Amino acid sequence: MPHPYVLLSAAVSLDGYLDDTGPDRLLLSSPADFDRVDEVRASVDAILIGAGTIRADNPRLLVNSAERRAARLAAGKPEYPLKVTVSGSGDLDPEANFWHTGGDKVVYTTDKGAERAEAHGLAADVVSLGADLDWHRLLADLTARGVDRLMVEGGGRIHTQLLQLGLADELQLVLAPLFVGTPEAPRLFGPGGYQAGRLRLTETRQIEDVVLMRYEPTAPGTGPRATPADHHWLRLACELATLCPPSRTAFSVGAVVVAADGTELARGHSREGDDPVVHAEEAALAKVDPNDPRLASATVYSSLEPCARRASRPAPCARLILDAGVRRVVTAWREPDTFVAAADGNGLLAAQGVDVVVLPEYEERAKAPNKHLLS
Ligand SMILES: NC(=O)c1ccc[n+]([C@@H]2O[C@H](COP(=O)([O-])OP(=O)(O)OC[C@H]3O[C@@H](n4cnc5c(N)ncnc54)[C@H](OP(=O)(O)O)[C@@H]3O)[C@@H](O)[C@H]2O)c1
Ligand SMILES: [Zn+2]
Questions:
Q1: Which 3 state secondary structure label does DSSP give 13?
Q2: Domain for residue 222, yes or no?
Q3: Whether residue 265 sits in one domain with residue 194
Q4: CB 321 within 8 Å of CB 306
């Protein structure tokens, strides 16, 4: 299912809260940062907030700058981005500012919520996503409405789900120099399962007394980018890892290179043949003609994250993959720091624009032939 680019935007206190518990909205950003947010809003096709934020803050979600609105019109876009909200209950106040300002509105809800929402007579399209709120369907529906870029302005329940589902492409986080100190106040991210490993920091910027940090999740998990075929090939890569001659000083890894049409181009595993140090991805790529035009749209499947540094050869596998022109990597297990500290082959690949997908459900299989190395 095609999805828009999803940009999460939020401001937090130094102790990680989105708001206090008072009746008015807590102003976390600074004036210049509110203007930056206005600019981001002007650059997107739609802005989404949760029903909780409509209730708590009663926001308008406008593009305030007349010049930015004029530029949108000149570019053939609507004056304001589409306004989107999400509600399970359908219990939405028809008097809220959200419905009476700015561009077109869409409410995504459930079968149950749709009845309530319709009864409120909201000035909006009400779309039911079934018995439960299905985020993949929501994003696909936005794509069908012509939304290529979606800005998500909270609140915490919304941000948490999009990040945990691996559906966020970018996080713009503003850190404000104040404390909230109330445990009941809403937090940006709730408990639950997040991507393994670190996000990639792409920018920091001081704006008056706040700091903007931009991050990209590097491990989209079971997000939309995994295809059914990915499971087949990654399982095969994990099986190949079991063929490696055992070693006390290196991981056992399997890899497969697969063309976009599903043709296997090559496979390999660590220390195969009579090469005592060869890595799986290296062994597999060595079997493909470097001029094979199918490499540009091929996927490398590797049971372990491709290495970012190695002593035994001049180029690590992440570099070999980039040099081969491969733009997509699917892996099961992020490299632990057994041999190399903070190895981040996935980050290195993603920084060069490679689409990196991690399927953690295969991590145990990838680890199985390496049990003797993991304490
Ligand atoms: N500092 C910032 O940048 C910032 C930005 C935005 C918001 N905030 C703050 O965040 C707070 C609100 O956050 P919040 O987490 O309470 O609310 P929220 O995330 O805005 O909205 C949560 C609501 O969305 C609906 N929803 C979300 N996921 C759903 C799902 N999977 N299934 C069904 N319904 C779902 C539910 O609506 P129903 O209840 O209708 O079922 C739920 O109550 C406010 O205090 C606001 O000031 C701060
Ligand atoms: Zn390697």
A1: coil
A2: no
A3: no
A4: yes
Q: Is 180 in the pocket of ligand 1 (CB under 6 A)?
A: no
Whether residue 178 is found in the same domain as residue 259? no
Residue 221 lies in a domain: no
Beta-bridge mates of residue 215: 171, 201
Closest residue CA from atom 29 of ligand 1: 88
Residue 155's alpha-carbon distances to 48, 358, 363, in angstroms, are 10, 27, 32
Q: Does residue 174 have its Cβ closer than 6 Å to ligand 1? A: no
CA atoms within 13 A on the CB side of 319: 7
Q: What global pTM score does this model have?
A: 0.67
Q: For 30-43, write each residue's pLDDT tens digit.
A: 999 999 999 999 99
Q: Tell me if 369 CB under 6 Å of ligand 1.
A: no
The CATH number of the domain holding residue 350 is: 3.40.140.10
Count of CA atoms in the C-beta half-sphere (13 A) of 186: 19
Instruction: Please give the Cα distance from 366 to 252 (Å, whole number).
Output: 8
Q: Please indicate, yes or no, whether residues 196 and 303 belong to a single structural domain of this protein.
A: no
Q: Residue 319: nearest ligand to its CA?
A: 2
Strand partners for 268: 255
The residue whose CA has the least distance to atom 31 of ligand 1 is 133
Please say whether the beta carbons of 209 and 336 come within 8 A.
no
State how far the Cα of 321 lies from the Cα of 181, in Å rounded to an integer.
Answer: 48
Question: What is the mean pLDDT for each group of 10 consecutive residues in the chain (375 residues)?
Answer: 89 97 94 96 97 96 96 95 97 97 96 94 94 92 95 96 88 97 95 75 93 81 65 96 94 97 96 95 98 97 94 93 96 86 82 86 94 87
The domain boundary residue, chosen from 216, 239, 263 = 216
The structural domain count of the chain equals 2
Range of the domain at 157: 5-216
The dihedral through the CA atoms of 94, 97, 100, 102 has a sign that is negative
Which bin fits 121, alpha (ψ -120 to 50), beta or left (φ > 0)? left
